[in-house]
Amino acid sequence: MTRWGMVIDLDKCSACQACVVACQSENNVAPPNQEIHEQGRSIHWIRVLPTFEGTFPHFRMRLFPLPCLHCDNPPCTKVCPVSATYKSEEGIVGQIFARCIGCRYCTTACPYTVREFNWRKPVWPEEMKPIRNRDVSVRPKGVVEKCTLCTHRLQKGREKARVERREMIPEDYIPACVEICPSQAMIFGDLDDPESEVSKLVRSRRAFRLMEDLGTEPKVIYLSEGGGD
Amino acid sequence: MKVSEQDRILLKPVEQTTKRFWITAGILFSIWFIGFLAYLKQFYGGLGVTGLSRPTYWGIYITNFVFFIGISHAGTLISAILRISQAEWRRAITRSAEVITVMVLLFGVGNILIDLGRPDRMLNVLKHPHFTSPLLWDVTSITCYLTASTIYLYLPLIPDIARLRDHGTKWKGFYRLLALGWQETPRQKKILERLISIMAIVVIPIAVSVHTVVSYVFSMTIQPMWHSAIFGPYFVVGAIFSGIAALMIAMAIIRKVYHLEEYLKEIHFNYLGILLLVMALLWFYFTFCEYLTVFYGSEPLEMQIFMSKITGPYALYFWTMVACCFVIPFVILANRRTRTVKGTVIASIAVTIGMWLERFTIVVPSLVNPRLPYARGTYYPTLTELAITAGCFAAFILLYMTFTKIFPIVSIWEIEEGRESSLREVHERVKGYLPGMGGKSE
Question: What is the phi/psi pair of residue A223, to 5°?
């Protein structure tokens, strides 16, 4: 069985935020304006999270690109009263926007705070409307949304492979953030395939997962800094 | 069925409506209407009109939900437990307690619906139920509770409705319909008493389950200071605590407005005051256990939230809560001389405020301090949220007032029964407890 996962090499990541922009346009996330941003209500399915360790002068800042971690034991899916959020057979934590009642229980249960809520009707500049991605639905106000690892691309890739009468290959399904990453810090693939690049990297000594002690078992795995030398 | 001259005063609120009533009702209706307009604004504008934002996804609506469901424990526990334990002094107060339960539950559920981002999809909970969600357990047990406590309110009301049917002048058809042909035959009485005692027993475990499940909404998550095994009993104790307080406030107002000093006596306030004192001590014990274990373990993430309550931005709420829930009621109620009607009412008002703050300091600080270093800010409810909350409280009082205009708020038949038969029964019973008094020994 395929188990989709992602590896983010913090050594290679330059925190350029190209992934943030790519995700924004791929998934029809409305661009935030100043007011919404100041209220803490801008929506990003992936964001670059700064963390600070130590105090000056012995001080280190780390930057984590943080999408939904697609936990293998997700706290969010258990608490949803209407199964609007669920874990698919292939491990992707998905969200049924049309079913969500907006109780925001999943957002409070998620220890990584990566779920987003539509506080208002999303506002789009007129000129951006025609270039929205037709494969992804535009969410109405009042529902929770989140990174889906671009599942629409998985569907497309699968269909393409079927039409061409062949097995799926890794190039058929790549999320937008991984595709855009200029320093190739993000690697995507099947964690259950021992030959895939991700599963090789996951076995590296640099691999770690955010807040591993919580037992949520994220499928987005980081490679810590200092591995290059 | 006749109502004796002595008890005519209990029918008076139903028969006569004073000008003062209409004025109060008018004010409450206006507050409700403002709240309703605020809700319309939220319905069309989305939850953006509230003060919530990432990472604080829950605010005062959830606080109100927990608070209202807590208040609802007034009726059931007071009335059912006192009825089962044959406490004779209950007779005058059970009805007013049961009404609180039924009405306040509507507002508890209402606040959850107000809090939904998509209230138009609320039926999805029935269409696509997901049984691992504590919110679904909530829906189940609150529905049970609302049904059971409505029946439990209605059953003891039947003989009084029959009295209104035979006695009153207005809405004869309405009362005839609700009285279900009650003629006070011995057979009817026997069935009714059997049903009431069954319901009294059924309603207690349901009530305990309701507030346990409400606490599970928080404690099933892995959020720091929510993930705690003590939450179940802690919430149940808090619920009974605030329930008794709300009941005493209601009783004091009824007593004053309808001149029922003869029925709701000093002794009732004294006894309920002692009960409130016991609950205040229990509340303190639970709070102490909860906070001491967190402090002693001093897990960094939990300490962050702990400190935000003790000295940080939520300190004002926290210490006001401690003062209102423990210091004030303890000082007033531990002293026989201050355990008067006035004293107990002051203590009750303090407890009600304190318990609302308790819910607030549980819900908000944990969410404001998430595990990851996101931008944090304190949460302040907006005017819209405050207006909706005020509207809920006003609507609750208005509904309660309306009830007293339709049905007697003190159970007439139970008072009569007390006068006629229980005096003798209690005499016999006490005799039965004592050796050598010749009472019936069972």
Answer: -110, 125
> Are the beta carbons of B46 and A79 separated by less than 8 Å?
no
Say if the Cβ atoms of B124 and A143 lie within 8 Å: no
Residue A136 touches partner B, C-beta closer than 8 Å: no
The model's pTM? 0.93
What ipTM was estimated for this complex?
A: 0.91
* A226 lies within 8 A of chain B by CB: no
B117 and A143 within 8 Å at the Cβ level: the answer is yes
Tell me the chain A residues in contact with residue B128 when contact means C-beta distances shorter than 8 Å. 82-84, 99
Q: Specify the length of chain A in residues.
A: 229
Rounded to whole angstroms, the Cα distance separating B214 from A80 reads 15
CA distance B219 to B286: 15
Residue carrying the six token digits 């981002």: B117
Q: Closest by alpha carbon to B387, among B25, B21, B30?
A: B30
CB contacts of B133 in chain A (<8 Å) are 78-81, 105
Q: Tokens 């691309």 label which residue?
A: A153
Rounded Cα gap, residues A218 and A179, in angstroms: 21
Pinpoint the alpha helices (H) of chain A: 18-26, 34-38, 75-79, 105-109, 151-163, 176-180, 197-202
pLDDT in tens, B58-93: 999 999 999 999 999 888 778 888 888 888 888 888
Q: Which residues does residue A188 pair with via DSSP β-bridges, in sequence order?
A: A6
Cβ–Cβ gap B57/A117 under 8 Å: yes
- Tens digit of each residue's pLDDT (9 = 90 or more) over B298-357: 998 999 999 999 998 999 999 999 999 999 999 999 999 999 999 999 999 999 999 999
A104/B contact by beta carbon, under 8 A: yes
How many angstroms separate the CA atoms of B258 and B404, rounded? Answer: 10
Alpha-carbon torsion (B287, B317, B247, B381), positive or negative: negative
For B211-241, the pLDDT digits (tens) are 999 999 999 999 999 999 999 999 999 999 9
